[in-house]
Amino acid sequence: VLDLGCGPGNVLGLIGDVEVDYVGIDPSAAYVGEAQERYPNARFEVGSLGQLLPEDWGVFDRVVMKGVLHHVSDELVREAARFSATVLRQGGVFASMDPCYRPGQSIISRNLVKRDRGQNVRTGPQYQRLIETGFDAVELFEHDDILRLPYDHAILRAVR
Length: 160
Prior knowledge:
Elements: E1 2-4, H1 10-15, E2 23-26, H2 29-38, E3 43-46, E4 60-66, H3 74-87, E5 88-101, H4 107-114, E6 122-123, H5 124-131, E7 138-143, E8 153-159
Parallel strand pairs: 1-2, 1-4, 2-3, 4-5, 5-6
Antiparallel strand pairs: 5-8, 7-8
């Protein structure tokens, strides 16, 4: 599993007791240090989208980006899609989850999403079009029921 924008390694914590080869990459040295302390048997590296070279990382079954895409520009999302498609094995899966705007969204959800510190919150279809830069088919799932409070998420899934 390659976790782009891993932060303090929260995705690895969600995986649980399943044995997995995990690599987390984040631009924040502080987050990488925290992740390394929490999960000493995993690999964490400081790195930024747009500066990663596929040949430096090997091949993965999964690439995940949880709560990352709404923090970066359209060009970096496209770059992440191309990079992910390159490092995924045939049949490998890319997955992301980010806040989104939706037609008919509750006023509470819209206001909470608007207050997110990510400056590039998009609609689900906008995220989908950007990720299609690297993949032939990207599935979009929109949910407003993941958290206990109203908050809309776009989940993307693409298979190489």
